[in-house]
Every structure is written in structure tokens, then in C-alpha cells.
Amino acid sequence: MKDLGTLGGTHGSASWLNDSGEVVGNSTNQGNQALLAFQWKRGVMTNLGSLTGDACSVSDAINSSGQVVGGSGVSADWPACTDLVERAFLWEHGQMIDLNGFVPDSSNLTLNEAVFINDRGEISGTGTLLNGDQHAFLLVPCRETEDGCEEAHEVLKPRPSGSRLAATAGGIKRSSAEVTARFRSSMAGRNRRYGARQTSPQQ
User: If you write DSSP's letter for every residue of 96-149 in order, what string do you get?
Assistant: First the structure.
């Protein structure tokens, strides 16, 4: 067992490990003020930060290319984590990208959290409609063509289109126990977010 350390606080949890031994997870910063996504690689923990305007973030998965997905704008039991809306993100090459930039203008779906990314760059997660209904989503990398978009067969680097963000919905406040429980990396937990909303076990 290896202690990965923290981003300066006393809380840390790992959520995913790729075949290269890179770990992603979440840790509190100095004084336990905020919960932030991290990537751990060769003994070094990197703070992935958050999207502009957000105080907190969480990372859920990493693929073999080092692309990380998760959610920015988390409401949880740490002083700074009072963000109202969680937004799904992709992190690569030191940059965090808001995946809502890929949602068509005609959609009223907000992508709240990306929970998995495979080695083809396909991203799955959960989103919210204006009426509060939650749905699963799948994003597939594609090449721009004259006719629109064709599916790519290798991992591509998504580029924000500049389209407006989908309408937002209210966030869900999580207890520290819930945050810890939902980021435990286990095979049984891979699909736990694709059904009814999960609650943490009684401590």
C-alpha cells in the first residue's frame, strides 16, 4: 500500500488507475477549504484545478492517454464547495475543458459529470434537463466534415466549439461520507451512476 499524499489537506481519495500506473482522485487543499481533482503520476500529485468560476472539482476516470474526466462545480461539506452547478470536464495537456461546449444549441441538457473515458476517447456521464430529469450521456470524438461530423476511430483531441452552454440546473449537496464513498475505485462501482441516485452506506 502506498500513500499518495494530498494537496495539503487531510482528506484524499483515489477513484481510478490506468495501465500506466497514473491515478486520479480528489483531495482537500490546505486547511481543508476546498475539494479538488488531482492526477498522481510517478510520485507527483498535480492539482487539476477547476473550471472558471468554480471553487471545487472531482475527477472520476483516466484513460491510457492520460485524459481525465470528472465534474467541476461541486457542492460538498468543505467551506469553499458551494458551487450551484456541476459541469462535466475533460482534462488533458494541462487544460480543463468544459464538455458543455459540445452540447448543441438546441439541447436543454446540462452535462453535470463525466464518469468514464475509454481509450477511444468516448466519454460517458450524467446530465440534467431543465425539468430536473437526469439522463446518461455519451460523447464520441469525431472529425469535422462538410456534412457535419463523422466518428473517429482513434483518440482525438476535442476542441471547444464556442457554442453556448446548455441551461443549468440546481446542484446536489454531498456530505463528506458520500463524496468518499462515490469515488472508491472498484469494479463493482463502475456502473453505479447509471441508475437511481446513489446514497452512501450508513457509517
Answer: EEEGGGGS-TT---EEEEEEEE-TT--EEEEEE-TTS-EEEEEE--EEEETTEE
Cα–Cα nearest to 7, from 61, 51, 57, 47: 47
Residue 164 is given by DSSP the state: P
d(CA 28, CA 12): 7
Predicted confidence at residue 184, as pLDDT, reads 40
Taking the complete model, does pTM exceed 0.85, yes or no? no
Q: Which three cell numbers stand for residue 140?
A: 464520441
Smallest CA-to-CA distance from 140 within 154, 121, 159, 157 is with: 121
Closest CA to 103 of 52, 46, 161: 161
Map grid coordinates 489537506 to a residue. Answer: 9
Q: Is the pLDDT of residue 202 over 60?
A: no
- Measured in whole angstroms, the distance separating CA 51 from the mean position of its chain's CA atoms is 11
Res 158: pLDDT:
43
Q: What pLDDT sits at residue 146?
A: 74
For residue 96, the model assigns a pLDDT of 98
For residue 122, give the C-alpha cell: 468516448
User: Any idea where the domains of the chain sit in the sequence?
Assistant: 8-183
**Residue indicated by cell numbers 476511430:** 153
Computed over every residue of the chain, the mean pLDDT equals 80
